[in-house]
């Protein structure tokens, strides 16, 4: 029998690692349906040791614990979805600003929903909205549906589909489109931390990096986005100005928002009103 305190003494740990070990210990207890005792049985210790070893191989602790916090809400996560990050909360805050004084029913589409953290958070903030979300991954949609159930969201519809399929979501239009599409290019891979390589590559990497932005903008112009509707992207600080150039011909009121690290993280634009034919 070994206590958690004993294990922490045996390992040289900093404050963050000690915090992580306590989370992993709680996860191991949950997996074995044990009580919240500070004594670890042999079988429980084996699970705990396995989790710690994975943690030291840079597997994100959110995957090991099966959950992550986003906008003060707990979301289920696994290796099929990106881990929600504080950077993405910038998009939520910006949408709140855009619709602070607008109490009408809005229709919204999220492209590439992943865990569903963006749509679900907005669903809780704007329960009268009608929200569609889509993803190419059925495994990701399963996680998103579970999170919607967890947070009692009844105004979200989930769709599986490919953005580049011309028949996908035909004859539909929305007041608001949001997306955090893949945007990491090959030349940026070396700057990524090790943990990111455990996340789904289909949700991270794009070649060329503006591939998904350009297609979403094209689909928005061709009918997905209503006149005077908003398009809101999460983006990399490295490509925000390039996205701005893509938006200029058909959009106005282009705004850039910065995250808590003062990096450009969100760009939004309002679709121009169609001019009547003379």
Largest sheet: 7 strands, mixed
CATH classification class of the largest domain: Alpha Beta
Q: Which structural class is indicated by helix and strand composition?
A: alpha/beta
Tally of DSSP helical segments: 9
Side-by-side strand order of the widest sheet:
7-6-5-8-9-11-10
Q: What's the number of extended β-strand segments?
A: 11
Number of domains: 2
CATH topology assignment of the largest domain: Rossmann fold
Query: What oligomerization state is this entry in?
Result: single chain
Mean pLDDT: 86
**Uncertain parts:** none
How would you sum up the global shape?
globular
CA radius of gyration = 21 Å
Considering DSSP H and I runs of 4 or more, what fraction of the residues is helical? 25-40%
Protein name: peptide chain release factor N(5)-glutamine methyltransferase
GO biological process, one term: methylation
EC number: 2.1.1.297
Keywords: Methyltransferase, S-adenosyl-L-methionine, Transferase
């Amino acid at each position: 029998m070994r206590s958690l305190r004993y294990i922490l003494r045996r390992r040289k740990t900093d404050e963050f690692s000690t915090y992580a070990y306590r989370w992993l210990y709680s996860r191991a207890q949950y997996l074995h349906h044990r009580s919240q005792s500070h004594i670890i049985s042999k079988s429980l210790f084996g699970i705990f040791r396995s989790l710690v070893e994975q943690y030291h191989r840079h597997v994100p602790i959110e995957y090991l614990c099966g959950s992550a916090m986003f906008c003060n809400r707990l979301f289920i996560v696994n290796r099929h979805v990106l881990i929600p990050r504080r950077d993405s909360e910038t998009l939520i805050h910006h949408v709140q600003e855009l619709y602070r004084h607008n109490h009408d029913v809005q229709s919204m589409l999220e492209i590439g929903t992943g865990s569903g953290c963006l749509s679900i958070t907005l669903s809780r903030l704007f329960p009268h909205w009608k929200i569609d979300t889509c993803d190419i991954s059925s495994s990701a949609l399963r996680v998103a549906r579970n999170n919607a159930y967890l947070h009692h969201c009844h105004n979200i519809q989930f769709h599986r589909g490919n953005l580049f399929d011309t028949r996908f979501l035909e004859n539909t239009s929305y007041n608001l489109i949001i997306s955090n599409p893949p945007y990491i290019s090959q030349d940026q891979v070396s700057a990524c931390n090790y943990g990111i390589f455990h996340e789904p590559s289909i949700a991270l990497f794009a070649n060329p990096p503006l591939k998904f932005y350009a297609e979403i903008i094209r689909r928005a112009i061709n009918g997905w986005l209503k006149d005077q509707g908003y398009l809101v992207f999460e983006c990399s600080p490295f490509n925000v100005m390039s996205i701005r150039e893509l938006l200029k011909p058909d959009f106005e009121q282009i705004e850039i928002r910065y995250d808590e690290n003062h990096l450009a993280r969100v760009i939004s634009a309002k679709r121009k009103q169609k001019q009547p034919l003379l």
